[in-house]
Description:
Helix content is 46%, strand content 12%. By secondary structure, the protein is of the alpha+beta class. Helix 6 (194-217) packs antiparallel against helix 9, helix 6 runs antiparallel to helix 13 (353-362) and helix 9 runs antiparallel to helix 12.
Amino acid sequence: MYQRICTALRWLALLLLAVTFSWASQQSLCAQTGPPNLPPATPPPSSSAPQQEGASIWIYVGAVVALGVIGAIIALVVLQPNKSKKEPTLSYSSERLGDYRLLNLLMTGQTSQVWEVAEISSGRHFAIKMLLPECAKVAEHRRFLFHEAEVGQQLAHPNIIRVVRIVRDPNVPHFVMDFFPGGNLKLRILRKEWDFIKEHAQEILKQAATALAFINAKGWVHRDVKPDNLLVSSSGETRVIDLAIAQRIPTGLAKIFRKKGKIQGTRSYMSPEQIRNEPLDGRADIYSFGATCYEIVTGRPPFRGTSAQDLLNKHLTEKPISPRVHNPEVTEEFAQLVLQMLAKNKEHRPQSFHEVLMALRKIRVFSAVKKSKT
Ligand SMILES: Nc1ncnc2c1ncn2[C@@H]1O[C@H](COP(=O)(O)OP(=O)(O)OP(=O)(O)O)[C@@H](O)[C@H]1O
Ligand SMILES: [Mg+2]
């Protein structure tokens, strides 16, 4: 807005200058020639009068031209948008970002970092996701970061990380969210924390499914459901994160006139329709949730490929083997639910997360652990 006002003022000043010049040159021409072919109505009172009249016109013309030039200089130099627009920049160092002290670097991705921070005024802990310096000025990366934050703000739910504020700083674009201790579920799988997983799997899955039901009900598809994007506390409390590629579920005419975007997602968890770049709805998240469940109970995703394309082909065509083959402690009912979520045809999956939740309330994930006789 400010930039537009400046531009308008500059144009106005230039216009003024042009009008002033043309008017001034016209006046000086008149002063030199006088009215053509007309005898003077009255004789001049004295011989010095025409000289005085000519001089006063030149003083007047000079003053107007000078004013025009000064106006133009003010508009061009002082009001020049790029110079006058002081961009609000935050104080940023390796220890501090604005009002926050940077405590622990939680992850460095391709475009961003996530930090655990402490608010200086209150001492409360938060998490900050910020673009890396080399990505901060790239419009596409900024758009993704702010998209993630804005969708997060729209989706306020106890099992989705709360976005507290968005800071559109030109040098360090970032957003502040609640810090959730405990790390992501992928780490626990990689660390083979099977006792923890057996104890909490049912609750983790219920809480994640509740959040995903809410996301879908609000008209969004997450598109990146996977163990890395589930934060889990030591008591099994769960929060869904990373709405970076969340997309509106197209409805009505939007389904037909949909702009085909880039294929996005994480290969090990992508639904066949996501791979084919078809319009998505909540059932795409159900497929990814099925792949996530598979990995939680077996330690491995449903498909592995020799190449990226091989992996994607398996999602499209290969029948997954039962998770019970990898882990016999998984109940038959849960294995069936997982395989149903992994159906290639979305019509054959549970049709909503409410259906998944109902099933999860009825069945057990793991069979009761047999106590060995002593
Ligand atoms: N609010 C939070 N509280 C605690 N840890 C968090 C929080 N947000 C993110 N993390 C940690 O940072 C990791 C990465 O976060 P996130 O999934 O948002 O980034 P990403 O989009 O996967 O990054 P990139 O796409 O740039 O690789 C999470 O798996 C988690 O370990
Ligand atoms: Mg992530």
